[in-house]
Design brief:
Layout lengths: L1 E9 L5 H8 L9 E10 L5 E5 L6 H8 L7 E6 L2 E2 L5 H10 E4 L3 H4 L6 H11 L5 H14 L16 H13 L5 E5 L7 H18 L2 E6 L2 H7 L2 E6 L2 E7 L10 H16 L30 H5 L5 E2 L5 E2 L5
Parallel strand pairs: 3-8, 3-9, 6-7, 7-8
Antiparallel strand pairs: 1-2, 1-4, 4-5, 9-10, 10-12, 11-12
Length: 323
């Protein structure tokens, strides 16, 4: 799978509220939240790719574009060499079986009015996989795979704990035997011990099923432990893409350097380093490099010209004028 020059902007709604917002729009605001701005990223078969960034960096939006939950405004997502946006209904149906998205918040992504059995069997019914008895066997096996008792299949989402709901979401994502699983902050809302359990389940599913796994997270320290390759976003752009083994070993983008220093410091002391300033406003991103207002190394060119990714070591791309 590959994203080429992908953009995604969320436009304000029409009507009176939209007209009122337009009166207060800043001069360089073109009318929308620019969540992803010209991202190129390839996903290799069988890898674990970590997609990292602060809240508002565009990482979750990019994940949803890759899984065809959002169409790109510009650019193209390719799957096996084919443009996903050009798929007809049969091709899109097959794509949805092969690429699954696991949502961040299990409480809001599970329908509170249907049981666990219906939650897990719904995709099987839609894709006409098996008869009712076969689907029940399949659903029971999924529950066991994620560490849930099959006797819980008659329960509703509110009858599960937070960690159990996340396991249910994972089972749902695995129900169609996907080839690629994109997991959005799979452990962010959980206790530390439960986080480890969910991550271990993801890794077991990856190994047992031969999955390609994309883990979206704000936690660089966590991702650095499990991902073979890491892509780091800021302000809707990719700042750096590198193999895990190069973390802390190369001349990183200043933003990545700060993130990694925070992760290393946090491991040692239980705290993190804090970057000065705020992330860019996605409705009115700065010109040039989006990190320049917070960057201690920024020069005039950083304020006017967006940096293009350059390759240093093999497989290591950095979007910085001075790297």
């Amino acid at each position: 799978m590959e994203a080429r020059a992908v953009h995604k902007t969320f436009r304000p709604s029409a009507g009176l509220a939209g007209e009122i917002r337009s009166l207060f729009r800043r001069k360089n605001d073109q009318g929308g939240v620019k969540a992803v701005r010209g991202v190129d990223l390839g996903i290799r078969r069988g890898e674990i790719l970590g997609l990292v960034g602060e809240s508002g960096s565009g990482k979750s939006t990019l994940g949803r574009v890759l899984s065809a939950l959002y169409p790109p405004d510009q650019g193209t997502v390719f799957f096996e060499g084919n443009n996903v946006s050009a798929f007809g209904r049969p091709e899109r149906r097959a794509f949805c079986r092969r690429v699954q998205f696991m949502f961040q918040d299990p409480a809001s992504s599970l329908n509170p009015r249907i049981t666990a059995f219906r939650t897990l069997s719904e995709g099987l019914v839609i894709h006409r996989l098996g008869n009712r008895a076969e689907r029940r066997d399949r659903v029971s096996a999924l529950m066991e795979e994620v560490g849930l008792d099959p006797s819980f299949l008659s329960r509703y989402p509110h009858q599960f704990s937070g960690g159990q709901r996340q396991r249910l979401c994972l089972a749902r994502a695995l129900s169609l035997n996907p080839e690629i699983l994109i997991a959005d902050e799979p452990s962010s809302a959980l206790d530390v011990s439960v986080q480890a359990q969910i991550v271990n389940l993801l890794l077991a599913a990856k190994d047992g099923r031969g999955l390609t796994l994309v883990i979206i997270s704000h936690d660089l320290a966590l991702v650095s432990l499990i991902a073979g390759r890491i892509a780091i976003m800021y302000g809707g752009l990719l700042m750096e893409v590198l193999p895990r083994g190069l973390l802390g070993q190369v001349n990183h983008h200043p933003y990545v350097k700060a993130l990694w220093a925070s992760a290393e410091y946090g491991r040692a002391s239980g705290e993190g380093l804090i970057l000065e300033g705020e992330p860019p406003d996605p409705q009115s991103p700065p010109d040039g490099c989006p990190f320049h207002p917070r960057c201690p190394e920024a020069k005039d060119v950083c304020r006017t010209e967006p940096p293009l990714p350059k390759e240093g070591f093999p497989g290591h791309l950095t979007a910085c004028h001075f790297r």
